[in-house]
Amino acid sequence: MTANALYDRIGRTYTTTRREDPRLAAAIHAALGDAVTVVNVGAGTGSYEPRDRKVVAIEPSPVMIAQRPPDAAPAVIAFAEELPLADASVDAAMAVLTDHHWRDRAQGLREMRRVARRRAVVFQHDPQVGADFWLVRDYLPSFARRLHGKHLAELMRPLGDVEVRPVPIPHDCADGFLGAFWRRPHAYLDPAVRAGISVFALLPDDEVEAAVGRLRADLDSGAWERRYADVLERDELDLGFRVIVAEYR
């Protein structure tokens, strides 16, 4: 399934559970530094776009574009692999939780590097760390196998030399991506929550149903709380999410 088809499928209710978290936004915006002009690649519904800079949004899915707020940056229907921008035409290029869905991630990152004068900023998770997240490790084994052996720094190499900044996820994260509900496990039982998480759309239905069934049983029996008691004592958790920054000057 292409990224376009995926988000045309899950994007209809995307904004129900996928909202910008201000703490994550602060980390992303800080990484943009002094950039005034920014291209947001795989911009979706506009979350994490800075409102105090000149932004152009690149998004291939009309379904996602239709949900952008009226005051959002203008959106262009295009793909990361072929950005309709000239070389070094913006101060910075940014991409937030999108590059794993691109048809050719390396080419998309090379395009970000091509159009950015000063820096590229990517918010993404480290697969090696993400594979150890309790939901993935203990309930979604086939997805865990997909993550093993992948290294974030290697994936980001097309950007050039990068700095990797850890971003712990708060227990009350407003953006409902896969790891957001690490201390609120009952949320994963909600079909509306799962509908906004691409992993559940990509996995076979029977595997998702089995995972949800096991999780529900563990929550009902108290097994989940006993097994992950240490998680319940945390206010934030490192799930492998990182801000990656490449400087070009």
Number of helices: 13
Please give the number of β-strands. 9
Radius of gyration (Å):
18 Å
> Unreliable runs, pLDDT <50, ≥5 residues?
none
Walk me through what this model shows.
With 249 residues, this protein is α/β, with parallel strands linked by helices. The protein has a single domain, classed as Rossmann fold. Helices cover 36% and strands 18% of the residues. A seven-stranded mixed sheet has the order 3-2-1-4-5-9-6. Strands 7-8 form a two-stranded antiparallel sheet.
Layout of strands and helices, then pairs:
Elements: H1 3-10, H2 14-17, H3 22-31, E1 37-41, E2 54-58, H4 62-65, E3 75-76, E4 90-96, H5 105-115, E5 116-125, H6 127-130, H7 134-139, H8 141-147, H9 152-155, E6 163-166, E7 169-170, H10 191-195, H11 198-202, H12 205-221, H13 223-227, E8 236-237, E9 241-247
Parallel strand pairs: 1-2, 1-4, 2-3, 4-5
Antiparallel strand pairs: 5-9, 6-9, 7-8
Features:
single chain, 249 residues, alpha/beta, Rossmann fold, seven-stranded mixed β-sheet, two-stranded antiparallel ribbon, 9 strands
